[in-house]
């Protein structure tokens, strides 16, 4: 007799899965290191608990009924989820986070991060990584508002209690324009007066609560503001303006001749960038990324 609300036991789902995989009760019993009578009892108990027939036994070989097939399909999902839950709990007990949240500053080309992510996924395939791209103060804001665990490539971060930092890759800038832009044929090095005559393409700060910041702009220079570094480079390629670009973003564009560099009378200095994380965050996944990404001779603050 079926009992209302009887739970389906994992043991029964494992037996059902083994029968379907190995083709018989005897083979299923062997795979689970049990005797065939125990497997038969488990299935009979499952049918009794649910008040359904799981196997049609009228023929030479037991065949799953439609209800039995539903139990098998959904049961396999439950078994997978159960195994993943147990593994996740063991990882967390061992101080491995179930998910890591990273914010990448737009100054850093994403391809600089792909090798580290590939190595992490090979070593820890069950840990999820969520990567977001932010601009200027947005990277810092995402960390202090607990939206991410690690901020990568932050330039000129403010000092704040409870935030640790480590040097990351320095950012080298090149001043770019399209090959057919008037500045490409202008006498060089370019003065600030020459630059003011042409529109600058800039990427908007993605911070929502903090005061917006800007960098590399001249007073009185007209500008086109876009939302990402990718859009900035594309706009410069189309001749819509000029601007400083991180060298890591435009290497291929320069080699292909889609952009050209201009010498400036006052070039923009190489800018250090940092990894930032909260002192209270101490998971092993976060520590893995800090160790992998931090500059080799790196003072930590």
Report on the structure:
It comes from Salinisphaera shabanensis E1L3A. Belongs to the LysR transcriptional regulatory family. Keywords: DNA-binding, Transcription, Transcription regulation. GO terms for molecular function: DNA-binding transcription factor activity; transcription cis-regulatory region binding. InterPro entries: LysR_HTH_N, LysR_subst-bd, WH-like_DNA-bd_sf, WH_DNA-bd_sf. The strands form four sheets. A five-stranded mixed beta sheet has the order 4-3-5-12-6, sandwiched between helices. It has a three-stranded antiparallel beta sheet with strand order 10-7-11, covered by helices on one side. The model has no long low-confidence stretch (mean pLDDT 88). The protein is an alpha/beta fold and 301 residues long. The chain has three domains: 84 residues, Orthogonal Bundle (Arc Repressor Mutant, subunit A), CATH 1.10.10.10; 94 residues, 3-Layer(aba) Sandwich (D-Maltodextrin-Binding Protein, domain 2); 89 residues, D-Maltodextrin-Binding Protein, domain 2, CATH 3.40.190. The chain contains ten helices and twelve strands. The radius of gyration is 30 Å and the shape is elongated. Helices cover 38% and strands 18% of the residues.
